[in-house]
Request: fold
Amino acid sequence: MSDSPMFWRIVRRLLTANYGRLFVILLALGAGAAITSALLNLQIDAKRRLTTEFRALGANVIIAPRDANANSAGGTLEQALLAGLPTENAGKSVPAVAFLYVIGEVAKAGEVHHQAAVIAGAEGQGLTQVRPGRRTEYSAEKEKDPAACEIGAKAAEQFKVHVGDSLHLRNQGREATCKVFAVVATGGPEDTQIFTKLPTAQALADLPGRISLAQLSVTGTPDSIERFINALAQRLPGADVHGVRQLAQAEGKLYNRISGLLSTTVILVLILTSLCVMAGMSNVAIERKNDVGLMKAIGGSVRRVVRLFLAEAILMGIAGGVIGSAFGVLGSIWLGKAVFGVAAQPRWIVYPVSVGITILVSIASAFPLRRLASVRPASVFRGEA
Amino acid sequence: MFLRLVADSFTRRPKRKMLTLAALALGMAVATAALSVSLDVGDRLAQEFRSLGANLLVTPEADSLPLEIGGVDYRPANAGAYLPEADLGKLKTIFWRFNIKAFAPILETQIKATPVAWVNGGRNVRTHPVIGTWVNHSVKIPDGTTYTTGIEHTNPWWQLTEGTWFAEGKNECVVGKNFARHPPGFSSPLGPGQPLFTYMANGEPGPTLEVVGILDAGGPEDDAIIVPLDLAQKLSGKPGEYRRLYVSALTKPEDAFARKDPKTMTPAEFDKWYCTPYISSIALQISQELKGTDVRVIRRVAEGEGTILTRVRTLLWLVTIAALLAAALAVGASAAASVIERRTEIGLMKALGAGSGLVGVLLAAEQLLVAFVGGGIGYAVGILLARILGEKIFGFTPEPKFFLFFMVLVLASLITLLGSAYPLRRASRYDPAPILRGE
Reply:
């Protein structure tokens, strides 16, 4: 284009003609971009973070024997399958613990009177994640003991034991002892159980290499957990892999509501931003009547005039978007910290997306400039409004 | 004259005012919607979390250790302690009775059951867990009213894939889906309408039950037979008693204060703690009302609910503030634009002898009028928007709040004045001559 330097010169003049107005429009675009990018980033982060938070609810996937007989000694699974479990889903590690339940007889070491109790042998990564609760007593040092065991709050009360005491376990003539390293209160059946190392329970039950079930705490969106379950079920044809319905349903519902809310807000904010810029632009249109009249009078085509204003809008969109989005992404890191206690991870994809959206908004809000196309040079020069 | 000028500026150029008005109305609509949704949604979200099920478990205080594996208690029926069913109405008399959303007692027993009548007393039939509970049960409250509750409220994830729930006082049962798929001693799956023959532990035939529904609970209950509590009491020989009670209560998330030991609190602190719906204070109130019980907090539900709820609420307010900010910007910018556009008029007024102050007051009055009209329209649209959003996202309708109306009007006037302050100041300083020349 031969008149390209002239074109840009006019654009520059258009932009710098009124600094106050440029500032208002840039502020509107920038603030819109900042809010958009902050919300977009927070939205991605909040969804991800929410799925992590849900894991405070404990195990959500259970691997049980296919023919789960009501009797405890009934169906068991190979312990070996624990080694083949996926350790990751959606970039988050999957805590998995295998349990073997035995109904045995228990007493505080040195006491004669034994009482029936459920002994749960546990092995795997992340028992506290799979079985959330509050440890009312705990000793990290005693946990290292090879014969360490944990006792439920209700059982601890019943046997009158505390951290450091020893327990005597027996089942059909087989015996074992263990040393209590923690007392746990979950409010569930775990409160009445005694958690030992898996081999101890296997020896008591005379079921070496067998487990009753495995519990997994899988992080992810409801869909991704569903896929995880299906994939696992195919890999373990002998076992029954199922999600914990109680959690799946509530999680899915909450997740959808919160992400729906965030998405709606982003859209509303965008509408408001474009309205804001539109107001500024309609002002511009009025002020520029004379300029446009002159351009047309000296032979500028409507298309060229419109191109000029479009170039101006795009430039403002880029400037507002680039600056505003940067602020927004930075702000969302801080916001993430305020909401979730952990700084939100900036998603770099958010940045170009939000700049792009801002440019689009800016072009769309140049809509009032459309009026300029109908400007008649003669009437403008006569001074008619 | 003043009023006429204000009125004229609306009637002469309605189109220009429309844009300002639209921006204002839309901005305020979003503000109203965001505020009314987030004001209501807090309580709503807490209710939503109740779909996680009960957060309190009540068991007998002086009890032998339950031998519970996979949700089934393996203790023989004569071991351990029981609680009286008749006391349960007292749950709705505690201080936070309206926060008790649902409760359901459980009595478990075991029985031999098969769809085919066995000749030799069912000796070859396996024993199956039986769960006795309430479904849609009317509880008599000591104040004379009744309250309807049951397991379908405490465990909302229990779904019937076929048939209906049993009726109380009848020999009806619902069977778990695994039990229904492979009923003992029967080759084809079980469905509603079929009989289930029961045998006591000593081989005596028990009542014949009618299967009325199939339960999909996604847990160990899928292998069990679920019967009305009164029937389970008859089968286990424990009339009027239950062993476990699940309570679903609306609570306030625990904060640092709630974690303090009530025993170490001062009387004033204790009163405050007692009168706050913390899970721990509700637990205490229940154990005071139901004698001889041990009320435990189901930690995974209560704590998970607490942390998530706190975070979601903060997030919600953040989003509301973002929406308010965007609305304020839109309103402010359009207000500013509407002043800039009136330069000629201002010039003329000044040329005719109006002082800067008078021009400012005139324009401010106009803007206020716009703010009132726009804010009013915005409030109406916002209530509608809140209704749509509330129903789409949360499945409920937020109550229109009247104080929001005033808030929105004040907000609209404030933002409009703030947005027009700077251009107004500039406008009042204009030199009329160049403007009137058209420069």
